[in-house]
Design a protein that fits this description.
Helices cover about 20% and strands about 30% of the residues. With about 725 residues, it is α+β, with helices and mostly antiparallel strands. It has four domains: about 120 residues, Alpha-Beta Plaits (2-Layer Sandwich), CATH 3.30.70.2980; about 350 residues, Peptidase S8/S53 domain (Rossmann fold), CATH 3.40.50; about 140 residues, Jelly Rolls (Sandwich), CATH 2.60.120; about 70 residues, Immunoglobulin-like. It has an eight-stranded mixed β-sheet with strand order 8-7-9-6-10-11-24-27, sandwiched between helices. A six-stranded antiparallel β-sheet has the order 12-22-14-20-19-18, with no helix packed on it. Strands 13, 15, 16, 17, 21 and 23 form a six-stranded antiparallel β-sheet that branches. Strand 15 and strand 16 form a beta hairpin. The N and C termini lie far apart (about 90 Å).
């Protein structure tokens, strides 16, 4: 095709595009399309380097294509896009990625399958840029710190799926020492199981770990999520620019079964390993679900997190990826009712698709009743179920409605007062495979406030994405995207992480990125507690990919090691933001291993930064940003200055005597600095000279103190009592 014809087709498309109302587009994207048009006109149809650098335009199968994102409507038909030679992937939760040939831009005007379009973000933050945004580079360099920190002697536990044990990012930077301390594959049945557990296979030495190669295929087949996440937290880069945050830390990997008991076992196993090795432990959980737990911090998982936190374990969890889905509803009843349409995930998009799960939580002593209504496409009621009350519904109902020859299956579980929080709750699961039928939720109550969530339910029990509540005529209500924090990220003591796009400087010096990721789930928790706690980069983060995966991805870099080519790819999600924070925690613990879990969380939130994107965050936090954007450098600085309250008996090889002491305090080590810092329990600090292996404390008031030394760049402390 000639340049002139291409140009004319583009101009024809743009000429009518601005006047066309659907698919909808933002004004910013309309302006960007006009800018593309203007430059093409100036360059007489040539797709210039400048154009490709500023917009997502790629040469695909011999033609220049504009990358776009769309949202499918109920009339989505794949063949409509195929006829226009538009390249696309199967929709996920109604969202679709498009590669539109420039000469086919005009075809966008007549697409009936999409109700929204946007130009795909061109911002391409990688892990190397993200660590700069975190200010981790300053921590690695040790600027203004006792030394540089990279997570040495800290355990990072990762509960996930899709681990490549052989990937070179899990070696040290010289590719000599393997850094996976131990791994437990709960799916693998050959054994041996860990001591105290009767399932799975444990690997406790480097030869067995490398011989295994990877975890086994499971419900996610041979995945790569765990490899990607772990590499963000502590990958060594392996000659790529994508080095993780705490690249000297060691790893504990658990490929866990999808149930709460398996998770608790994983945490216990990791804690036992860390305790035996005298290492501090931070656990990363880049996953979550909405249909288990209480979502208000009272669940079993939340209680377990508190218990392990009190023992010094720090938990970091992704906050969820439903920030751009109106999958939540809140209704305060006054002898009235609520009706809303339940949007279903496409049954053709996932072979495990079962239906939708509607989970509802009310207030103590305020019962409510739910049911379903079946309508046609015109919202005409065809049939409906009775109401089922939380006050009187048996433990489990499994039944159906018949419309003509179609069967709508549904089941219900409910509690009048849940044992963990005393609140009424109901989970209503609906299966409807006929796209010409619509399902509405109906709910009624005398008093009280009820929250509802619409989440996809898969037959393998791992659905985790929200689908919208929709208005469907008079008397119905649409949903919102609030109160979207999942379990176990809603636990009080976990560090719940939202995501934003990495901000970095382009070659021209302009700053790009920095905005909240549209998918980042929004708080607060439905009981009003503020979540998330912090945000970190989570958009298009490049990190390691498992060489064993059978999943699809686009490689952005490779490295060769041990006769194998290993790859890196970009993923987005709060799953990518959480390990950023996990890595920062490892840096803090290396700098000051005496910090309690509560102190770590407090420091991270206290040192969070604000900017033009976050705006001024109130003292109670923001439901989008938490305390703000994580600032690794400020967090480590404050960690060094903070008196840790964790028991220090196993963290040092020296002691002081006599204890209690009245006049002179002696040390059991020979190599000592010239001064020691003494800190009282109320935070008062004293610098005291050390001479001949002892120092005078006779002028100190009576009380309990800690003496702190800087040994090889790291804080060590021991308690003593002045009498």
């Amino acid at each position: 095709m000639s340049r002139f014809v291409l140009l004319m087709l583009i101009v024809m498309g743009f000429t009518s595009f601005n006047a066309f109302a659907a698919p909808q587009m933002s004004q910013a994207d309309r302006h960007a399309l006009q800018q593309i048009q203007n430059e093409l006109l100036r360059e007489k149809g040539t797709v210039s380097t400048h154009l490709r650098n500023n917009y997502p335009i790629y040469l695909i199968e011999g033609q220049w294509c504009l990358s776009m994102l769309g949202r499918c409507n109920d009339n989505f038909k794949a063949e409509e896009l195929e006829r226009q030679q538009i390249l696309f992937q199967k929709p996920i939760a109604g969202l679709i990625s498009l590669k539109v040939p420039l000469q086919k831009i005009n075809s966008l005007l007549g697409l009936n399958s999409l109700n929204y379009l946007e130009i795909a973000s061109r911002i391409s933050p990688h892990l190397d840029k993200a660590v700069i945004d975190l200010h981790v580079d300053s921590v690695h360099a040790g600027i203004g710190l006792p030394q540089g920190y990279a997570g040495k002697d800290i355990f990072i536990g990762v509960t996930d799926w899709g681990f490549d044990y052989t990937h070179p990012v899990f070696y040290d930077t010289l590719l000599q020492q393997h850094r996976i301390y131990a791994a437990w594959d709960q799916f693998k049945t050959s054994g041996p199981a860990p001591n105290g557990f009767n399932y799975g296979t444990e690997y406790t030495d480097t030869p067995s770990i490398l011989t295994a190669g990877s975890d086994t295929a499971n419900i996610y087949s041979y995945g790569t999520h765990g490899t990607h996440v772990a590499s963000i937290a502590g990958g060594a880069g392996a000659s790529s620019p994508y080095r993780g945050v705490a690249y000297e830390a060691q790893f504990l990997f658990v490929t866990f079964l999808v149930d709460e008991g398996a998770v608790l076992d994983a945490w216990q196993w990791m804690y036992q390993k860390a305790l035996a090795a005298d290492k501090r432990l931070v656990i990363n959980m880049s996953w979550g679900l909405y249909h288990f737990g209480t979502l208000d911090g009272t669940s079993i998982l939340s209680q377990a997190i508190t218990a392990f936190s009190n023992l010094g374990v720090i938990f970091v969890n992704s906050g969820g990826n439903n920030g751009n889905v109106n999958f939540h509803l809140k209704k305060t009843f006054n002898n009235d009712q609520l009706k809303t349409r339940i949007e279903f995930y496409d049954y053709n998009a996932n072979s495990n698709m079962w239906g939708q799960s509607i989970h509802a939580w009310g207030e103590p002593n305020q019962s409510f009743s739910n049911g379903i209504i079946v309508t046609n496409n015109s919202n005409v009621v065809l049939t409906e179920s009775p109401y089922y009350s939380t006050a009187s519904t048996p433990n489990y109902i499994d039944t159906f409605l018949v419309v003509n020859q179609d069967t709508i299956w549904y089941n219900i579980t409910a509690d009048a007062a849940h044992p963990l929080n005393g609140k009424p709750q109901m989970r209503l699961r609906v299966k409807n495979t006929n796209t010409s039928l619509r399902i509405q939720l109906k709910s009624q109550a005398s008093n009280g406030t009820v929250h509802y969530w619409n989440v996809t339910e898969l037959s393998n029990d791992v659905g985790n994405w929200g689908m919208a509540f929709l208005a469907a005529g008079t008397g119905t209500t649409a949903g919102d995207n609030l109160n979207g924090i999942s379990e176990p990220s809603c636990a009080d003591d976990v560090i719940s992480v939202g995501a934003y796009a990495t901000q970095y400087a382009t070659s021209s010096g302009s700053l790009v990125g920095g905005a909240l990721a549209s998918f980042s789930s929004k708080g607060p928790r439905y009981d009003g507690a503020m979540k998330p706690d912090i945000t970190a980069p989570g958009v298009a983060i490049a990190s390691a990919i498992s060489s064993f995966t059978d999943g699809s991805y686009t490689s952005v870099a490779t490295t060769d090691f041990n006769n194998t080519t290993y790859r890196f790819a970009k993923f987005s999600g709060t799953s990518m933001a959480a390990p950023m924070v996990t890595g920062v925690v490892a840096l803090m613990l290396e700098a000051n291993p005496y910090l309690s879990a509560a102190q770590v969380k407090e420091i991270i939130m206290q040192t969070a930064r604000q900017d033009n994107y976050t705006g001024t965050i109130p003292a109670g936090g923001s439901p989008q940003w938490g305390a703000g954007k994580i600032n690794a450098y400020a967090a480590v600085q404050l960690a060094v200055q903070t008196l840790g309250t964790l028991d220090s008996s196993k963290l040092i090889e020296w002691s002081v005597y006599p204890n209690p002491v009245q006049h002179y305090l002696h040390f059991t080590i020979v190599e000592l600095p010239d001064f020691a810092e003494i800190i009282s329990l109320d935070g008062k600090r004293y610098w005291v000279a050390i001479e001949n292996g002892k120092m005078t404390v006779q002028d100190l008031p009576t009380g309990t103190y800690y003496v702190r030394l800087l040994q090889n760049g790291r804080i060590q402390q021991a308690p003593f009592v002045k009498i």
